[in-house]
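dumping this here so i dont lose it
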C-alpha cells in the first residue's frame, strides 16, 4: 500500500473513467472522504474537463481550463528537463586596480597581478590575471569558493573569446583552475557548479 500525500492526476483520471483497480479506487475514496481538499479540487476540475470533452458541441475550452493545463504541462517540463541550470550573472565586488578592497578580502601582494573578485549568490570566484615574460602572454588563475565556510568546490570551467569557445576544463577538488598562454583581450568565463551556471562576461585579460 502506497503512503501518498496526494494522488497523481493519472489515478484521478482513471477513477473518473472507472478504470482504476478496485483496491486503489477504495483507498482513493477513503482519502477523499478523509477531507483532502487538494485531491478533491483536482478531481472536480478533471470531471469538468471530461464533461466538456464529451460534449457534442465543438467549442474552445474555457480560459481557466487552458491556463491551468498550460501551467501543469510547464511544471512537468521543468521537472523532467535534465539540462536545466539556474543561470546567474556574476557581479564584480572587488577590482585591485580600483584600490577599493572589499570587506574580508586579503591583499595578495604586489606581484599577484590584476585581481578580481566576483559574487553570484553563495558562490565567489576569485581571479588573478598574471602577465608572463612574453609579449601578450597572460595567465588566468582562479578559484571557485562557497561563501559558507569559503571552501573550494569542484566545478566545470569554460573560457570563450567572442563566440569562439577556447577551452573547457574541470577544476581541482578545491575549486582551483588556470588558463595559460592567453592573448590580451576580452573573454567570457562560464562556471558550472552544482545546478548553477555562472557567467562572468567581458573579462579583460
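and the seq i came up w/
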Amino acid at each position: 500500500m502506497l503512503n501518498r500525500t496526494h494522488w497523481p492526476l493519472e489515478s484521478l483520471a482513471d477513477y473518473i473513467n472507472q478504470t482504476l483497480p478496485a483496491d486503489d479506487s477504495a483507498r482513493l475514496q477513503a482519502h477523499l472522504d478523509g477531507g483532502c481538499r487538494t485531491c478533491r479540487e483536482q478531481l472536480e476540475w478533471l470531471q469538468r474537463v471530461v464533461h466538456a470533452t464529451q460534449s457534442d458541441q465543438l467549442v474552445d475550452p474555457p480560459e481557466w481550463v487552458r491556463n491551468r493545463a498550460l501551467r501543469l504541462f510547464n511544471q512537468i517540463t521543468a521537472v523532467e528537463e535534465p539540462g536545466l541550470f539556474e543561470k546567474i550573472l556574476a557581479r564584480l565586488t572587488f577590482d585591485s586596480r580600483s584600490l577599493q578592497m572589499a570587506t574580508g578580502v586579503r591583499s595578495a601582494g604586489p606581484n599577484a597581478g590584476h585581481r578580481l573578485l566576483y559574487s553570484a549568490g553563495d558562490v565567489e570566484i576569485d581571479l588573478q590575471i598574471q602577465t608572463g615574460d612574453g609579449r601578450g602572454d597572460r595567465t588566468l588563475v582562479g578559484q571557485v569558493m562557497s561563501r559558507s565556510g569559503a571552501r573550494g568546490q569542484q566545478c566545470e570551467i569554460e573560457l570563450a573569446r567572442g563566440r569562439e569557445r577556447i577551452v573547457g576544463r574541470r577544476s581541482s577538488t578545491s575549486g582551483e583552475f588556470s588558463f595559460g598562454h592567453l592573448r590580451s583581450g576580452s573573454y567570457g568565463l562560464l562556471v558550472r557548479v552544482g545546478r548553477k551556471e555562472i557567467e562572468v562576461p567581458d573579462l579583460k585579460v
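The first helix runs from residue 9 to 16.
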